[in-house]
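BUG-505 | component: ligand-complex export | severity: low

The export step for iron/sulfur cluster jobs runs without errors, but we want the raw record kept on the ticket for reference. Input record follows.
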Amino acid sequence: MSRKHDEWGWMLAADFFFAGLGGAMLAIAGIADLFLGDAQTSVLGNFAGAIFIAIGAGLLILELGRPFQAFRVFMNPKSILTFGAWNMTFAIIAGLLFASFGITILPWSGFILVRKFLAAFCVIFGLVVATYPGVLLARHKARPFWNGPGIMVLFFLSSFITGMAGHILSGYVIGESSWFIAEGYIVSSFSSLVLQDLPHLTAIMLLFQLIFWAGYIWIKRSGGTEREAEAAQRWVNGDLSASFQLGFILLGTIVPIVLLLFTTPAIHSVGACLAILGGAIMRYLVVRAGEDRTWLPGEQKYRSRLPVGDEEFLKVWK
Amino acid sequence: MARYAMVIDTRRCIGCQSCTVACKVHNELPVDMIYNPVTTVGPTGVFPNLHMVHIPLLCMHCENTPCVDACPTGASLRREDGIVWIDEKKCVGCKACVMACPYGARIFNQEKGIVQKCDFCLDRVEKGNIPRCVQSCHQKARIFGDLDDPNSEVAKLKNSHHTVRLLDELGSKPSVFYIYGLEARMK
Ligand code: SF4
Ligand code: SF4
């Protein structure tokens, strides 16, 4: 039996990653605009936030069994996925409109009040989009690794880390190709206080992330149920441990902390890339950890005896 | 309005998997999909006091349905008579319900791109018949009926025996009740 029958695939993990990254980028851009003024984040970063959410939505659609019926996911207001789908839609629209204010040749770019409203929408929808995947997973009572508010905090933290890293990277990229700015087509964010401070802030958040993850695994390992402890064990010395420890903790958290403490923008951008990579690895591993369900009596033995990989043979034989 | 439920008397089940096969045939399931597996716990104990119990599993037709709450399309529904079913026309195969179900009762059908599950043989129940697995069980280990009818066999069994519901601590309130037979077998 293939595992596609009873679990989400990597595209859902990628959707969670892009939603978190894009949602946090919009929220950061909105907060910076509302409280610190114009051009605190780069135009590229503002557009990228909305585009990343759209990529996440696209992957979510591709993950569906019937992608052409995707419009139906907007139908049940009681479902958290419906809530997420609507918020992603609103965030994409608000994000693109907000980002367009950075293109000075557009006639509406001078309407400050409208920009402020859009910044507020970016904060609201961006925060919801960055948070809802964590809430969605936390509510799964029979998935011991996900269940509980902890996963929501970890997702939220990772979203903001990747969001900040996204802005660092966008600021660097647009700084390196500044012809549009020199010609006056787009607003310059060269003197942005936010962009200057983001590397150190990201390093601090990465440190929090390290501590929170250590605590999370420790709590789950000594957790309330045997299944919870077993699920956490996979991250310590099981099949997920190498990717978690080398990919996420070392490459995606510790190395970026060091790189972001330097003062060179090019090194910051490498650190930002690694922090983003870490966020992607973490989402993938967490979604995979959803395989662990609280077993019913005798179920584990039963499932372990089902043939794996024989589906094609059986279909041909039929 | 009826309130459908099933009592499974594990003292009677011999683990022959007839119900599993009958269900697969009735629902025309692909080779790699099973709605109601029969698991085995044991043998446990020390010779000569060994015991083993077979546990038929299926959708528990929960009263508090995490699967229905998770479904973004409204394809997963719970009827007033307690039967939880999927409107296949509306399902987009997002697997939100698969992940939300604590009992592993929902399966993604790769050929159709939708999720499917046991619906207590809704087509048969609507015509006044019993589900196919219940009909096929030669040991009468599966008993189906209306819990609100005090004269029904399910209501009598549920009221006269100590029954348990699987993962009851999760609060999903299943409509499938188990009579465990370990103590009875030991005697
Ligand atoms: S057993 Fe699973 S699919 Fe069936 S009603 Fe309960 S939660 Fe839904
Ligand atoms: S797979 Fe189908 S029934 Fe299940 S939640 Fe998605 S749309 Fe609803």
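Assignee comment: Attached the raw record above. The radius of gyration of chain A is 21 Å.
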